[in-house]
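Researcher: Here's a chain I'd like modeled. Treat it as a single chain, no partners, no ligands.
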Amino acid sequence: MKFSRRDALKVTGFSALAISLLPRVAFAARNSLQSLRTGVQPNNKTRLVIETANRPSYSLAYPTNQLVVSLSNTSVNNSVSPNLASGSLVSGITQAQVGDTLKITVNLRKPISEIPKNNIMVLSPNGDSDYRLVLDFSAGTPPVQKKDVASEYGTVPEYTTASATPTTAITAARKYVVVIDAGHGGKDPGCIGRGGTREKDVVLSVAKKLKNKLDTNGFKTYMTRSDDRYLKLAERAAIAEKKKADLFISLHANANPKREMKGFSIYTLSEKASDEEAKKLADAENAADKIGVEGFTEFEENIRIALSSLQQHAVAEMSEEYATGCAKAFKKASITQQPGPDVRHAPFAVLRSTVPGALLEIGHLSNSSEEKLLKSASHQDKIVNAIVRSVKNYNFEV
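Model: Modeled as a single isolated chain. C-alpha cells:
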C-alpha cells in the first residue's frame, strides 16, 4: 500500500495549521519491537504483523522456506514471544541482532513467492497498537536465488523471481519522482578550491550525470537548474513541491579551514543542528540567499510558520531513512567519509518542504587531493553510482 504523505499530512499550499498540528520526530530514535503475530486471511493467505514503537524501515529477503524481515536501527526484544495462529504457513519466528539491524526470520511450512507491494502495509498507531508492518502472503513459486551480493547489512544472498525487475521504480504502479538540486549557481559560485574549482560547476556536472542514470533506471527526474543560473533556496524547495517529488537530493561540495579535512557528509533538516560544524555549514549554505536580496519578498506569516514546522513525523522519518541508506551506499562504494556520524542534522533552508530529502556534501574542495578527485569524471561517476544505489534501495512505499 502506497503511503501518501500528502493525504496523511493534508498539506495544501503549505497549510500552516495542518503542519503545526503534526507531531515532531526525534531524529535517529532507536526503534523497538513490540509484538509479533500471525493470522489467517481469506484465500489461504497468511498475515504476519510486526509491531514496532516507531515507523519501521524494513527490507525483505526470501531464503528457502523462510521469510527474513530486516528492521534497521531496531533492537532485539527477547521478551516478545510470537503469537502464531493455527493453519498459517508460519511454523516459527526467531530474532537476531546484526549490527544495528534486527533480523526476524520466519520459518515457513511451504515456500512462498515474493510478496507484492500491494500486500505490504505500514499502519499508523491507533488506541491499542503502535506502528504495524503487515505482510500478507500465500504459498507459491519460491524466488530464484542469485549469487551473493553485499547488502547494506553485510553479505547476504539476494533473491528474485523470474519476473522481478531490478529497480524499485519500474515495479511501482507509477514512476517515482526525484528532484535533483545542484547547489549554488550564477553569481553564487559556492566554495572554490585552491586550484580554482568552483562548487557550482562540480555539483552541476554530478547532477546531470545523476539525472541521466536515474532516468535510465526508470525514475522520473527533474533538476532545479540545468545550467549556470542563480536560484533562491526557497525556489529550489518549491520546485520539488510543484513536481510532487517523492525525494529531493541537494548536491554540494564542502570547504573547511582545516585543509586536511576531506570526505562526504549527509544532512537532513532539523531546527536544531546536531553539532557546531553542522550549524556553521547550514549558516554558510543558507547565506546564499543573501546574495540576491534585491526584490526579495518575505513569506507571509502563515508560510513562515509552516516552513518552521516541517519536522513533521512522516517527512522527517523518510528523510532520515534515505540519508542513512545513502551514507551506507557511499561507504560501500569506498568513498571517503568525513569523520563523524553517518547522518547529521541542521536547519538547511533548501530542505524546508513537505518532500523527504537530504543534502549531500560530496567532498571537500578545500582539500587539494579531493579537489582533484571531484573534478575527475571517474570519481563523479563513482558518486553518481552510489547515489543511484541509495535511491533504488530507498523504500518509497511507506
